[in-house]
Amino acid sequence: MTLNTEQVIINIGPQHPSTHGVFRMRVTFDGEVIIDMEPVFGYLHRGIEKLAEHKTYVQNIPFTDRLDYLAAMSNNFAYVLAVEKLAGIEVPERAEYIRIIMAELMRISSHLMGVGFFLNDMGAFMTPVLYMLREREKILDLFEMACGQRLTYNYMRFGGVSHDIPGEFMPALKRFIDEMPGYIDEYDQLIAENEIVLARTKGIGILSADQAINASTAGPVLRATGVKWDLRKADPYSIYDRFDFDVPTGTNGDNYDRYRMKIEEMKQSVRIVKQAMEQLPQGEICTRVSPTFKPPKGEAYGRVEGPKGELGFFIVSDGSAKPYRFKVRPPALLNLTVLREMIIGWKLADAIVTFGSIDICMGEVDR
Amino acid sequence: MTKPLSGSDIAQQIGDQFPDAVTDSNETAVFVRSEALLDVAGFLKESLDLNYLNNITAVDYTDYFELTYLFTSLASNHSLVIKTRCEERDNPRVPSVVSLWQGADFQEREIYDLLGISFDGHPNMKRIFLWDGFQGYPLRKDFIIDVPGGGKATKQGVNDA
Amino acid sequence: MEIERPYVSSELDKIEGAQIDALMAASKEPYPDPVAWLHEELQQNVLLTSTEHVIDWGKRYSVWPVLLGLACCAFEMICAAASRYDFSRFGMEVFRFSPRQADLMLVAGTLTWKMAPALRRIYDQMAEPKWVIAMGACTVSGGAFRGSYSVVPGINLIVPVDVYIPGCPPRPEGLLHGFMELHRKVLADKLIKK
Predict the structure, then answer these.
(1) How many whole angstroms separate alpha carbon C184 and alpha carbon C165?
(2) Disruptive mutation site among B112, B132, B134, B143 for chain C (greatest number of C CBs within 10 Å)
(3) ipTM
(4) Which pTM does this prediction carry?
């Protein structure tokens, strides 16, 4: 006997325990199977691009922290790279190494949160998150030693970084880097062989490589489909060409591969930090630039490989002390382009887990 | 390193195929007429294998709008910048490239929402961040907001105050 | 791929847009902060003192928050709930996801006009007695984004607020201090108000 089902429209969000921020989906169901999804954005649209035109270049550095608030150092890094390209400012060696150490620690912290909340969505309520937060607190202690803040750092400046790392930073970093591989293995053992995780992630939310490239995805989402594209190797910025690390890729592009990417990238980040710690030279940390400096007329696009993908800033300058146009390339928004294709035909619970595996941050999607 | 292709060389290639599509070119970018944008983009996607669209940006220079497209070829690791201009203020229209690169979907909706430029051929041209019924287009230079400590805003930009 | 939808999304957008415009027009004056509970003349209830004490003890030590993390401050709230700055010592680690089961609305992050009707609706769905904590500079006054075209300059235009916690973001210790202030306020809320 076939059941007569009619189409039901359900609204998921904006306040929901599993949305990573305020994101809303209008989903049309036929029984329990999803047949259509419409994303609705804008619940955190604060107008950063317009406000940035009213502040000087240095005053905009704290705005960049609030874009992807889980990876604030990477945002700072991309912005200062763009303006340094525009104005032709040189960066001393010590500052370059410090920036790399901070950016890679930030990647580890962001991926810890990504994996923790991915498992939260699956139903392992708060246990993996509490384990991941234990390590993240150690990273936040290191950042607090360097710049005094835990979440929005405002640390990088045009021409270097704002404060030098204090004496107790390097021993604490060494202790952290020595124990971190053990912790990553502990998490991997607990999660990757678990039957429920495998049943809920393998073969679900599949994305093909052609679809991913056409939809401008980047970061772990793109690499999980098998495309080996990482800006740190393809278009090295800062001094990434001096370090030796691998770029992991996946095979199927399903949820499990995206989780695997994050674990492997954390291991590679630990490698990079170890090498940077050994090679760290002494010297200046910042070339002095005036707080109201006026870069020459022109435009520049500076980008980094953030934890979520290619994060870029397109700055247009008209010769005055405030930017004429401040545009952000948001990796999280572009990674969401394919969400609709990934969840049509699956059930509601799979949709939530697939959305969690893309790992977005609404501050960046909405700006 | 990603090799940025020279605008002047590519302008030659485009000019052979589409005689009056290119208006200007320099070392970094090729300027194309907005009506010819879709054809030129399709041609470049085939011939130079530019399969990845990085970014679409729109800037409001008070007399005209300028759109900048950045494309990359993942296999051959080179990139190209295409620019196009739109002179109209009241109802600016530009062809959409969504049929070639799906990644342009949300970026074009954002440009419509914040600057008012509509894209012909986009399947879902409506506001994305602001709510339906919001008056005006915020990123235009004549949309004045009052930011505490932010200087005096005028139609040409913000003065150093 | 195009699929027939059973609704027309532009009509739904128009209805929601009209709600947001209506709320924007109606929220010009801030709600007064609820200090009526601190009135001195309500303290004459000699007969009920010991029952009141027990009830207050119960109310104060199990205030359950509803999860409303909007932006960056939400992550300091999560850190306050985690193992280092544990706030389950205060009886509050039970984050209810449904507002019907919660006592406290902890607004953490910037509120935009598009989100404001949803916030008001969640506040209205909570049962009495209820309290609101505004965490972070963005909820107190608009914060770093004051003057923007889409940010509400302070959530006291939408809901009445009991405790304001400044900071951008406030440290977890700051949030715990805010909770202790709220406990003082809850103690002052006597059983018989009128």
Answers:
(1) 15
(2) B132
(3) 0.89
(4) 0.90
